[in-house]
Write a structure and sequence with these properties.
This protein is α+β, with helices and mostly antiparallel strands and 370 residues long. The chain contains 11 helices and 18 strands. Strands 5-6-4-7-8-9 form a 6-stranded mixed sheet. Helix 3 packs across helix 11 and helix 6 runs parallel beside helix 7. It is globular, with a radius of gyration of 21 Å. It binds guanosine-5'-diphosphate (GDP) and magnesium ion. The site of guanosine-5'-diphosphate (GDP) has 16 residues, from helix 4. This is Translation initiation factor IF-2.
Length: 370
């Protein structure tokens, strides 16, 4: 594996070298600007700063996005992508269902609700919000380890009749490591044992100071059962999103991230993807992980056929040659020949890697961080 100096990596990432040194320090790696770091550490850093990992050095066959940055004037506002995390049984699934129930488009859809790993709602104000429907920090962490930073905002769910539990703390740590802003939802407010103040105080021990404690982390009391607080939670998500000025270029070849994928007996391989930038269209030729294909059809979470998918829309894609992996990037390419060439190259690489390397050290490094 290659090594690179901290300074050189900073230059390539267009980040301040001092910020990289700081981030490395937090990982327990003490270096100065001229020190070299190994490839795995470099990849972790790149991910940490929210960039995509590109190993351009080992080939010129694969797709290189590193020089492919969208110009400022091509960027347009896009909806936020939200992940819900928290301890088991604290009400993540119930909250996701309740939020889904607030969709103003729901009534007119006519299709059948699909569980495709993500859904998008239209709020009363007409704004769009995308929710990843796979709660839990495992999915979040796995995606990040694969270089996919799809989440803009984390909702930390804590049951107000319980307390901070092990998975609550893990979720806090993962969210902090990812540098993703958090909104605390203290749920089950309908229960007699509900004691949100206790939760707010316990959060202080983890350096989370919520608004109610004069901090700047938004918090809200909700009940998935009665619907109390849902509108406030939605307002807070939109406020957070506005502060972040989330943007993407919709007018280019699409790039998307696989949220989940499976083999359907009738339809063949199905991949749920979230569009990162560009617009995915029926007929587009694509490479996704080690697979190639052509978009035959797209379905949204309401089971409706979609002809074009803009940034932050989750869609199920039909027409991929095989089942890709969660976290894989989908890229639209110009020709089938090119798609097959890249897919074949990646398959070769994957086989070579399986036979020559030890378990990924990226994973070890991540658990050291948490
Ligand atoms: P998850 O494991 O975090 O996905 O939690 P679930 O959504 O499956 O909820 C766990 C349990 O808490 C279920 O029995 C739910 O019915 C219950 N629950 C979830 N939210 C609420 C709520 O707001 N109020 C009440 N009373 N019960 C809730
Ligand atoms: Mg659940």
């Amino acid at each position: 594996p290659e090594a690179i100096t901290v300074q050189e990596l900073a230059n390539r990432m267009a980040e301040k070298a001092a910020d990289l040194v700081k981030a490395l320090f937090k990982m327990g790696v003490m270096v100065t600007l001229n020190h070299t770091i190994d490839q795995d550490t470099a990849e972790l850093l790149v991910t940490e700063f929210g960039h995509n990992i590109q190993r351009v050095s080992d080939n010129d066959v694969d797709i290189d996005h590193s020089a492919d940055v969208d110009a400022e004037d091509t960027l347009k506002a896009r909806p936020p992508v939200v992940t819900i995390m928290g301890h088991v049984d604290h009400g993540k699934t119930s909250l996701l269902d309740a939020l889904r129930g607030t969709d103003v488009v729901k009534g007119e859809a006519g299709g059948i609700t699909q569980h495709i790993g993500a859904y998008q709602i239209k709020t009363k104000s007409g704004d769009l919000i995308t929710f990843l429907d796979t709660p839990g920090h495992e999915a979040f962490t796995e995606m990040r380890m694969r270089g996919a930073n799809v989440t803009d905002i984390v909702i930390l769910v804590v049951a107000g009749d319980d307390g901070l539990m092990p998975q609550t703390i893990e979720a806090i740590n993962h969210t902090k490591a990812a540098g993703v802003p958090m909104i605390v939802a203290i749920t089950k407010s309908d229960k007699p044992e509900f004691n949100p103040q206790k939760i707010r105080e316990r959060l202080l021990e983890h350096e989370i100071i919520v608004e109610q404690m004069s901090g700047d982390v938004q918090d809200v009391e909700v009940s998935a059962k009665t619907g109390a607080g849902l509108e406030t939670l939605i307002e807070k998500i939109l406020l957070q999103a506005e502060l972040m000025e989330l943007k993407a270029n919709p007018d280019r070849a699409a790039e998307a991230t696989v949220i989940e994928a499976k083999l359907d007996k009738g339809k063949g391989p199905l991949a749920t993807v979230l569009i990162n930038r560009g617009t995915l269209k029926v007929g587009d030729i694509l490479v996704v992980g080690t697979q190639s294909g052509r978009v035959r059809a797209m379905l949204d979470d309401k089971g409706r056929q979609v002809k074009v998918a803009p940034p932050a829309l989750p869609v199920e894609v039909l027409g991929v040659g095989g089942v890709p992996m969660a976290g894989d990037t989908l890229t639209v390419v110009e020709s089938e020949a090119r798609a097959r060439e890249v897919a074949a190259f990646r398959q070769e690489q994957a086989t070579a890697k399986r036979t020559t390397t030890a378990p990924a050290s990226l994973e070890n490094m991540f658990s050291a961080l948490a």
